[in-house]
């Protein structure tokens, strides 16, 4: 590629131009190679490039240094060893083809599985060599990305007497704050049924039945921040409906952790494995532990009227109340931080992880060549289904068979989920056949469609 060597020479912008948040260049090492000799990592999704200003940076990681860039003009350079993709932006029909045999594909996807169901099927996730996802099985897990630390969980709760006074003013025991409707988890369908049996105050655009107390708070952007007025208001509720927008092991967001920070009890549906991460055995109420919304409503009503039983759900806020050693050890071992300027963020951490892997691979390939085959070539690492592997969406209440033929959720999300499988298979086939023309993607999709039609 033209100009690649010259591009490498001026790779490091002046340090004074960086703010602290974007100045992390790795922990440092003794790598004396010049920029011209370093492996190149290309952030294919340039908007995630964790350095500014400029398009290129040298990073010094434990096992060696790399150049990282968002400039796609080096995509086919012989030293470009890895492409880093952002899962939300990854489109099978836009993937860089042909795939070069000397390049690793790395996936960063901390967001909802609903953003790209291609990654929840084996053909899609196995396109990648290394992953950073919310799943603990990922190569670089981001599971606790929404939890800053134990101090966040131990923040004091609103006194029960104040919550009871709030109830006497006519507010319900349960808060629902959601403006992202019609999602794969179909949460609104469940909450709508629950509302038949207990008062749920819903302030967002979904199932809206009550107004926030000020015009400022009615700005839905406020509800996505740590705004103090908003947090003070919602902290008075005893229970928060905490339903993720998609169901998948280890997919846990601020919908879970924020109520716990505030001292409300999350009424949760999301990660089936959520209990593994809870501070103690009685921290949240799992929707799926109850046979019906009516049974859940009875239990919430019982806790609402029995303060002593309710407060058992907040005992993790007491000194020594966080009993889960797995949670404590996971936070302790985490090498990246959340709003912690003393640690790298997870973008910087992941690029150093990939840099180390590529430097190791380069050395092993050199040893293989020098030995004339006596030392085996390094085997490629391939991502596994369990690095994402999210299940098919199911209705929030009832079964698929109960839904009408024109149900919008059914038409949108079931079709999206299964069409994503076809897209992963199409791109896999294109790579195996060394295709170079992205436009042929839809021909491959048509072939798969005809094959499935014949099978059925």
From TrEMBL:
Keywords: Disulfide bond, Endoplasmic reticulum, Glycoprotein, Glycosyltransferase, Membrane, Signal-anchor, Transferase, Transmembrane, Transmembrane helix. Residues 174-325 form the Fucosyltransferase C-terminal domain. Coiled coil: none annotated. It comes from the Eukaryota. Residues 39-141 form the Fucosyltransferase N-terminal domain. GO terms for molecular function: alpha-(1->3)-fucosyltransferase activity; peptide-O-fucosyltransferase activity. GO terms for cellular component: endoplasmic reticulum membrane; Golgi membrane. Pfam families: Glyco_tran_10_N, Glyco_transf_10. It is a single-pass type II membrane protein. It is found in: Endoplasmic reticulum membrane. Pathway: Protein modification; protein glycosylation. Its main location: endoplasmic reticulum. Belongs to the glycosyltransferase 10 family. This is Fucosyltransferase. It comes from Prunella himalayana. The gene is Fut11.
